[in-house]
Amino acid sequence: MANQRTGIRMSDEEAWAFIGECRNLQFATLNRDGSPHLTTLSFGIDDEAIFFDTYAKAQKAVNIARDPRVCLLFETGIVYEEMRGATVNGRAALVKDPAQSVALKAAIGTRYDPDTPDAAHREASQKTEGKRVVFRVVPEKIISWDHRKL
């Protein structure tokens, strides 16, 4: 099994390219009682970090304030031979600089709606400042698999 696992692992470059192709991620935080809280998020990538925005009062934001450890899952494929994925473990950090927060929210908007002008995404992001916050996750560990390599 170890040889097969090694054979399906993506290189760092392959894993980041795969993550960049994904549209959404499954995002897990820890509730107060230690149980997982799992949600689906839109995201962006910069400097080998993953960022997302959410309501400041959302459960995931409350959980991160208490315990910043998070797990992210990116996956695709229907049948076993096509399955690809990456799990990212890290710590989420609140982006405190308002200008950077607005820029990152606008980048997410542009990623998902590239036909809308950047200025419109920036304006929309500015309107949500304070109500929606941005977190960045710098990966501490990435585990990846690509069953197409079998």
Descriptive notes:
Strand 5 (69-76) and strand 6 (84-94) form a beta hairpin. This protein has helices at residues 2-8, 12-21, 59-66, 98-112, 118-127; strands at residues 25-30, 36-41, 44-46, 49-55, 69-76, 84-94, 132-146. It contains 5 helices and 7 strands. The chain has a single domain (2-97, 134-149), classed as Electron Transport, Fmn-binding Protein, Chain A (Pnp Oxidase, Chain A). The mean pLDDT is 94. The protein has a 7-stranded antiparallel beta sheet with strand order 2-1-5-6-7-4-3. It has 150 residues and is α+β, with helices and mostly antiparallel strands.
Helix/strand structural class: alpha+beta
Mean of pLDDT = 94
Number of strands: 7
Beginning-to-end CA distance, first to last residue:
12 Å
The general outline is globular
SS element count, helices = 5
**Order of the strands making up the biggest sheet:** 2-1-5-6-7-4-3
Q: Write down the domain tally.
A: 1
- Radius of gyration from the CA trace? 16 Å
Beta-strand percentage range: 35-45%
Specify the CATH class: Mainly Beta
CATH topological fold name: Pnp Oxidase, Chain A
Written as H for each helix and E for each strand, in order along the chain, the element string is: HHEEEEHEEHHE
**CATH homology superfamily:** Electron Transport, Fmn-binding Protein, Chain A
- Note the main sheet: 7 strands, antiparallel
Tell me the CATH architecture: Roll
Helical content (DSSP H or I, runs of 4+): 25-40%
In terms of per-residue confidence, which ranges show pLDDT below 50 for 5 or more consecutive residues?
none
